[in-house]
Amino acid sequence: MPALQRAEATVRARLLAVHGYTVDLDLTRGPDRFGSTTVIRFGCAEPGSDSFVDLEPATLHRAVLNGQPLDVAALDGNRLALPGLRAENELLIEAEMRYSRTGEGLHRYTDPADDAVYLYATCGPDLAAKVFACFDQPDLKAPITLTATAPEDWTLVSNGAPVKSEGGHWEFVATKPISTYLFTVVAGPLHSVYGEHDGIPLGLHARRSLAAELDREAPELFEVTAASFDRLHEFFDERYPFGEYHQAFVPEFNWGAMENPGCVVFRDEMLFRSPATDVERERRAMVVCHEMAHMWFGDLVTMRWWDDLWLNESFAEMLGYRIAAESTRFTGTWTGFSVQRKGWGYDADQRASTHPVAGNGTRSVAEAMVNFDGISYAKGASVLRQLVAWLGDEAFFTGLNAYFADHLYGNAELPDFLAALATASGRDVHAWAESWLRTSGVDTLRAETERAADGTLTALTVVNEGERPHLIEVGGYRIEDGRVVPVGRAAVELAPGRRVAVPALVEAGAQLVVPNDGDLSWAKIRLDAHSWQLVTESLSAVEDDVTRAVLWAHARDLVRDAELDPVAYLALLERHLPAETSDAIVEAVLTFAHLHVVGRHLTGERRTEGLAALSRTARALVTGGAGDGIRLAALRVAVEASGGEQQLAELRGWLAGDGVPAGLEIGPELRWAGLARLASLGELSEDEIAAELAREPGTEAEFGAAQCRAARPESAAKAAAWQVLFTPESMSNRLLEATARGFWASGDPEEKAAYALRYFERIGEASDRGDIVAHLLGGTLFPVDQATPEVVAAAEAALAEPELTPGLRRNLADCADDLRRARAIRVAFE
Ligand SMILES: [Zn+2]
Question: What is the 796 CA–ligand 1 centroid distance (Å)?
């Protein structure tokens, strides 16, 4: 049965009104299945009509509609027909469901640290039917009342607060009306920490083996949560509507977090078993704030259909960064947004698969997941920043509050949002939306200058080569005794296709000019040649973090567009990164240099030299005078880029605890990264991997060992990894990811080239294994470093195959775009 189509959802939403679900789960039926009994009470606007309910059982025991048994054999895929509905109906479904190993539905995890079992449900976008029978579409909201039976030593957390727990039997209060994709339950012998803020009961939960980490992190998590609630309550008239607020950290979670009302789920890597940098803490704070913003955007008012995903994600993203910056100690979030997060969006917006921010064209829920991308998040948030810059905070939030008041516990679409903003602001928001929300692609803003002999400007024009209006700032700087001195910032309104003179910066005597300084807009920039020359000489001397972030992002863009030799980018890195003071910039630049520049854009001798340059830069940062966050980020790259006898001896020393740079610590994550590097160089045997695994069993060890095994260069190791990757159900999502990550790290060049071609012969098989496996095999395992004409051709042939699922097709198409880009860079400079 194909996934739900938008047209079907529209018909069903017109016909049905769901009054409530009661869901009873039996979690005591062994390792494979759980019991799921659901009663749905619902009305039908046209009595006598037929409809259908969604469910994906292992076994359907009983289905009773209005007292009449339905034929369970009539279950067609994941749908059961409901014939002859009355004005008021009651449907009973008794079923057994399968636990998931891929994080889709009710995921079951056995902790290798102590063999304890944990469960959690992921229901978005259309996975609720793997947990309970339901009308699984965002605009059929209803209260859900959960009861459950579980082992006696377990704790259960769900969207509603628990009202009773006795002898393993749990009862929860009915939720407010919510969409089915927002249901969750988290279960197991959880470790919990409780708190309260402004009358809202708070809970933090994790598996038992992470108790120490949860206790250590709880004060910071509560602090960020409290500050974010306060800010959200300043922004919005409607108070937090979902009762208690629980945050559960769960294993093998596929995404960063999920905004289930009252019970947000995070990947438990965010509890930091290993030493973490401040950038990672900042990113976590942003995610905490992002999920809290979702309580309004997404949970209280929900997009009617997945094509308006931006109504959830773009707002949560923008507010997540903003609230963290304004209300927590993580005041620098916008630097990370500029230098790292926006790159994800710019990349997406320049691929063939780009789409408008609003109205992404999702026809079937099978396509919904592919748009959880850099456009719905990073571009959408940037565009909203442009909107706020244009309207001002007051009109923006007045409009939002009217929008919430009109659609409380309901659903909305783009026109609803625009109408509220237009009323509040009195501006032509619709024209703005046409150019910013209904189009795709990135505009380029170019600086053109005339100069005196000493380089001082005599004329400055900024050219908008694109199709949208931009409200930006242009920064002007002078170079004085090696210092970069700001001389002014000019606000510039750029109509589509227009050239605007900026005399203020000429009068101020600027030498270096930066369009979109402060990063208010969504645009590529092009500096004039003299300004770029000054940047290459003085980048690290620019004082403002966001300006440096804009310039580093610009350099990244030049590399991707084959306008800057990747080797010159690495030279910029070697010259300016050792003096960099922003953790976010160091981390983003090192990551791009390592994974993209060295990993994809260089080959042969140039790659060897590039890796050596990267390794030198990272080691210079580790031993330099930077803060511990920067040094730790650099140490990670130093570990992974180690090569040559001397560096490998040093790496072995670090792993044995000898010569670890002062103030730093080799935690489990970094230890396994170092082992994976050794494994890829043929310096770690299977016996040594097994011994490391036995040293401290746990999640990192299992993940690390899987990555190490796949990373070993021997043919037999590659064959074994290949075998498990393409065997369905062979392992969990996270171990599959680890194996995919290790696979291309080494190997005989000819053998790798042969595997790259075999990859495209086999990849179609992933279509039958769900979205997550399609993401891991179609994305993580994609042979990104094999940008040869043969591999590009094989990728194109694979994409011509009509049977690919939308998720797999999107992953392959996007990776193929990157492959072509890497190929163009190689051709331009080699
Ligand atoms: Zn989100």
Answer: 32
